């Protein structure tokens, strides 16, 4: 297994419905962890790269209605 973490910025604030949907995504095959930094408007997604591609992880987030604006490089 190869775990990767990517970070995306989102505009505005996440609603309670967004947070609920994020919680439901932990059951998605290949997603390992989702962490939200509300003060910086960022979502970190850790996934198993042997099971998912980054584009697929992004599609899962957007499919759940999470408004993502851009990828952020992790320092």
Question: What would your notes on this structure say?
Answer:
- A four-stranded antiparallel β-sheet has the order 2-3-1-4, with no helix packed on it.
- Helices cover 25% and strands 32% of the residues.
- The chain is built from two helices and four strands; from the N terminus they run E-H-E-E-H-E.
- A hairpin with a 4-residue loop joins strand 2 and strand 3.
- It is of the alpha+beta class and 75 residues long.
- The radius of gyration is 11 Å and the shape is globular.
Task: Describe the secondary-structure layout.
Blueprint: E1 3-9, H1 16-24, E2 31-37, E3 42-48, H2 54-63, E4 70-72
Antiparallel strand pairs: 1-3, 1-4, 2-3
Task: Give a brief outline of the structure.
The chain has two helices and four strands. The chain has 75 residues and is of the alpha+beta class.
Question: How do the strands of the widest beta sheet line up side by side?
Answer: 2-3-1-4
Rounded to an integer, what's the Rg over CA atoms?
11 Å
The structural domain count equals 1
Strand content: 25-35%
The tally of helices reads 2
Uncertain runs with pLDDT below 50, 5 residues or more?
Answer: none
Largest sheet entry: 4 strands, antiparallel
The average pLDDT value, as a whole number, equals 94
CATH topology: Alpha-Beta Plaits
Overall CATH class: Alpha Beta
Query: Gap between N and C termini, in Å?
Result: 23 Å
What is the CATH architecture descriptor?
2-Layer Sandwich
Bin the helical content.
25-40%
Could you say which structural class the secondary elements and strand pairing correspond to? Answer: alpha+beta
Series of secondary-structure elements, N-terminal to C-terminal: EHEEHE
- Total count of strands: 4
